[in-house]
Amino acid sequence: MRKSLHYLLLLSVFSVAVLSVAAQNKNRAGQVMITDKLIPAPFGSIKIDGYVGDKLNLCIDNRVMAQDIDRLITPFQLRNDGSWGFRSEFWGKWFTSAMLGYGYSPTKDHRQVIDKAVNELVKTQSTDGYIGTYPTEHHLKDWDIWGRKYVLLGLLAYYDQVGDENILKTAERVADHLILEAGPESGVNLAETGWIGWKGLASSSVLEPIALLYQKTGNKKYLQFAQHIIKLWDKPNKLTPTGIRLVQEARNQTPLWEMSGAPKAYEMMSCFEGLCEMYRITGNKDYLDATHSLINTIIRDEIMLVGSGSLAEIWCNGKMRQSDPMYQGLETCVTVTWMKFLHQMLRLTGDSKYADQLEISLYNALMASQTPQGEWWSYYTGLMGERVPSHLQFADVVMSCCVANGPRAMLLTPSWAVMSSSEGIALNLYAPLSANLKTPRKQSFTLNMSTDYPIDGKIVATITIPKKERFSINLRIPEWSRETKIKINGKIIKEKVVSGSYAKLDREWSDQDQIELLFDMTSHIVAAPSGVPDAAIQRGPIVLAFDSRLVPFRHGVDTPPMYRYKFQNNGDNTIDVTLVNQPPVKEIWMTFQVPVVDEAGKRHELPMCDYASAGNSWQEGNLFRVWIPQPFDFRHLYINNLGWSINVTDNSPRPTIPEMYKK
Known about the structure:
Elements: H1 2-29, E1 39-40, E2 46-48, H2 50-64, H3 69-78, H4 88-104, H5 108-122, H6 144-162, H7 165-182, H8 201-204, H9 207-217, H10 220-232, H11 246-251, H12 265-282, H13 285-301, H14 318-321, H15 332-349, H16 352-369, E3 384-385, H17 401-410, H18 413-417, E4 418-420, E5 424-427, E6 433-438, E7 444-451, E8 458-464, E9 469-477, E10 485-488, E11 491-492, E12 501-509, E13 514-518, E14 523-527, E15 534-539, E16 542-547, E17 564-567, E18 574-575, E19 578-580, E20 591-598, E21 603-610, E22 624-625, E23 628-629, E24 632-633
Helix pairs in contact: 1-6, 3-5, 4-5, 4-6, 4-17, 6-7, 6-9, 9-10, 9-12, 12-13, 12-15, 15-16, 15-17
């Protein structure tokens, strides 16, 4: 009963949000040439339950809406950031998360949080339009433009949902002041501003909110500024003799560590998010080709088995190196921006492979980065070692970039779970959920999904619709599901189901029609891409890992007589793992019994768990590992000198969750 009342409240508040989103779409209609192939469902129209829903709720309740807003605002009041300061990014990262959280759960309390946050920030705006944390003499240096980018993204996110024209004008004043200081008439090369090590990437990423501002206002000075930024990428500057050449080198599929710009993963992808918006505005196919080539190069060279990449925040040919011990591997900011970039490309192309990648990132790298109660995030999330809460980059704001950023990807989930197109809808996320949608003829209908996926591969979706209507329901068929069965009202469809694509069900739908999906959840042994004799196990979208709570660290006298094992391969790289109904450790989501053989050929079973649960006590000594040598030695199953220290940036003590946020 309580859940039903909550849902009715959500729907009633959502009616206001629908009007503002409709107004937003009307504003944007004249400012874009390209219409997305897939469009996110409106805010508030999706309700997710089950494991994913719990993660969303914890993220909203214990992190995003629990934020001490005053600590984020104070640096904008004091403007005391100097060399290397970047407190200006925290408000915008957190606030864009808060707007996603409000869009998903638009309650009165959540509205009070976002209203306070935006109103307190606006009070810090100078008469010239500047909102930031730097004194005047430090403008355009270090992370100043990067911080202004996040201010703009936050203000525009508020305008999108609330429709407050005053906030849009505030954003325009921020942008106008930036154009005055670094626009075409300023004599400043924006692409050579910012911290020298990243060769202008951070400043260049302001392209995204500038392009969005043009879409919302139609003011051509913002389009001209955006085009100016892109031209600067080809202009030689003091940081690089060729310019950063992002468009050309992306189109050529240049290895990312060889590009003229810095291989800084997060900032590079942020620039291409802006290029996606510019493609929508201009229809310039070079922009689409560049983004398409870059994302495929990232998949080819950098994304590891768990759906993220980077070594110490930079591209590093990570796909080939992922089975090696990695210091400061898989920055959470990279995971977040990777997922946002995938979301952009899923919208633009309608290609299901980007939804496949989103799913893998969600269930593995992203969930592994969030603490079990959702109140904090990790900075790095490697493939072996320990889970470690992020350190505080600035103690006064009690924040780090990854803690501010992590919720942005988690709360993006409802936006790609169910999407619409001119032909109907696309189902991307398989979870217990309810979606209130529109048909192509604007008829309201509801889709309810029941499933334990990815614990098992069965999904049942039921349609509630007042009148019969013909439209398409496209079902994402993951690439890893070799054999997929689809039933409609109990009858198996005869058309071939192709893995790695959408199965298009184009028919007249009636009230209480039921779709049943059955995925092939066969577990597979994955060989290390580098060719070293290491292997990992993947079951559906879930990567498995050893955890020292399930298989304790053994050394010396505790070593069993037979201590060298390897995974029992069925001969076709499949392996028969068995799901345990009740995991022996309560914090672990899924535990599996995995067959191994010893040196004498005798079969044994060892417990492994889902990667996101591995090490999730977040305590020192809770070791885990994904890539396992074949054969592996029990005495060296965990590399015990790679504990928490590989995930911090200096020699400070082991980080802990701040007391003010601890649950």
